[in-house]
Structures are given as structure tokens and as C-alpha cells.
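Render this sequence as a predicted structure.
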Amino acid sequence: MDDADWSPRSLDEVRERIDAIDDAMLTLLHDRAHVVEHVGRLKREGGGTGANSAFRPAREVAMLRSLYARTRDPLTFTTVSAVWREIISGFTAAQVSLPIKTMAETATLARETFGAQALISLAPSPAECLSAVTQAPGTVALLPADGIEWRAVAASGGSVVAAAPFVGTKIEAWCVTLGEPGESGEDMTLAMAPDGTIRHIPGIQTDLTDETFLGAYPVPLKTGRS
């Protein structure tokens, strides 16, 4: 329907075309829902940590990069990313609930990052957020980046799997889960030296000699336009 030569003669004609596009979009969403049902089934059959969580930040960030590269005027990427955020949130909830434990200062960011159907609850401290990850596998702890205690993250048994927001120039929070970091095509490893110094190493490097592997995260998408 992307026809640059289309020139409607009335508002009724425009509205009819909008209705047809909406119908096509809804049909595609139904098709996607059926495909996602198979994703959930295959994860459960495969077992492992992936069976308990549908959170796949590496895939989400890779998807956003692809969408950004293909978005063109007059559609803004802000609109595209917001729509896809809720699509992902809805289909994630269809597979398995996504509990998020965070603090009051990052509650808004949590909703923007995980969407309307994520089960977001607040904890009074980062320690309680990390505790929720081990007590309820599948939980994501969203920890404020400012003043984060990396030794506590290392001792929790969880790993950093993403930085939030997924789109932006500043990391405001870290996502910690019991899952393994995934590859997005542009990733950084977090490593902690014995003195507590943190290094961001390009790629996913798990074989560290004198440093503690804290996890790895997809590099957030930095856009030059809305």
C-alpha cells in the first residue's frame, strides 16, 4: 500500500484505506501471536534458564537497530519503537509472565523498557532487587546505574544482560537475571578487577583471567533523530 502516486479525492477514501491498513495489521498481529506460541513451546521443551523467561534483550536491541535503519519519513522512530515495545510486551506476556523488581527512582524507566504488561514491583534497595532474582527465576532486577554495588551483583549469582534504556546515549540502569547474556551483534562485556575497577570490553568475553565476569550487554542504540 506504500504508493507515492496515490492521490485520494475525499476524506472517505482516505478513511477507507486507513481501515484496510488497520485490518491488515491486525491480521499480521494474529499471525505473530500464533508463531510466538510455538516459541514458548520450543523453549519449554528445550528446558534450561530460557524456559522460565521470555526476556531476550539482545534480540530486542538487534530488532530495534534493524527497525531504525528501515524507518523513513514521515514516520518517526519514536513512534516505531513505542509500538514495538508494546508488541513485544504483549507477546512476552503470552509466553510467560515477566516480573521486574526495581526501585522507585527507576520505576518509570522500567515501564518504558518492559512495556505495559510486565509485572513491575518496587523494592526499597538494590539488595532486595537482586534477592528477588534468585528467589523467583525469570525475574529481572533493574538496578539504578548511579552508585551500583558491583560486588553485590557479582555475589548475587546473576548476570548483567542489558543496559537501559535500549535506545539512548546514557545508561540509566542495568538489567540483572539468572540467564546468560545473548549476542546482539554489538555487545560489551562488564569485567571487575580485584580492586573493584570496572571495564567495558568489546564483545562477549567470558574467559577472564584476573577479573570477574559481571555479564554483557547489547550496546544501546544511539539515534541521531526522533
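Summary. The first strand starts at residue 99 and ends at 102. The first helix runs from residue 11 to 46.
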